Amino acid sequence: SRKVGIHALEVYTPRHACSATELEKAHGTPGKYSVGLLMCEFCGPDWDEDPVSFALTAVARLMWRNGLRHADIGMIQVGTESLLDRSKSIKSNLMALFEEHGVTDIQGTDQYNACYGGTAALLNCLNWVESAAWDGRWALAVATDIADAPAQYRFMVGAACTVTLVGRPR
């Protein structure tokens, strides 16, 4: 066993949120969200928020709160179903945080997949740290999304980002 695991977690939620019970009242579905889905709040983005801004904020906060240097990161895997456009990955956008510090050798990709994208990103980070290819640096698994759904599934719509710091004990 190489004792690979999660060392830190950062969560970003948009500025706007409403109570799940208030949303149930508005939709005429008492208990569906608060009891059935264990939801407390429902978050939605403002006009100036998107999955990239969520991820940039969450990654910067995780790095600052954990005293990480930009050179300490060796992999960034992103899971999402909300690309801004299909010409540039979110991981490419995140590299702006590192390039300004002279760090350009970070492996990673985007996993563009509904619900499973974030899980795939985390598993890819765990696998990299366990592999012979691991170079001793930390991995970041970023799950960022603004989910959308048809009208009958509006309770499944929401927005947030998590960043998971993956590595071995120091």
Please give a structural write-up.
The chain has five helices and seven strands. The chain has helices at 20-27, 32-36, 51-65, 90-99, 116-130; strands at residues 5-12, 16-19, 41-44, 73-80, 110-112, 138-147, 158-167. The strands form two sheets. It has a five-stranded mixed beta sheet with strand order 1-7-6-4-5, with helices on both faces. It has a two-stranded antiparallel ribbon with strand order 2-3. Helix 4 (90-99) links the parallel strand 4 (73-80) and strand 5.
Helix content: 25-40%
Task: State the major sheet.
Answer: 5 strands, mixed
Beta strand count: 7
Strand content: 25-35%
User: Globular, elongated, flat, extended or rod-shaped: what is the shape?
Assistant: elongated
Q: Detail the poorly predicted runs.
A: none
Task: Give the count of helical stretches.
Answer: 5
Termini gap: 15 Å
SSE string, helices as H and strands as E: EEHHEHEHEHEE
Give me a quick take on this structure.
With 170 residues, the chain is of the alpha/beta class. It contains 5 helices and 7 strands.
Give keywords.
7 strands, alpha/beta, elongated, five-stranded mixed β-sheet, single chain, about 30% strand, 5 helices, two-stranded antiparallel sheet, about 170 residues
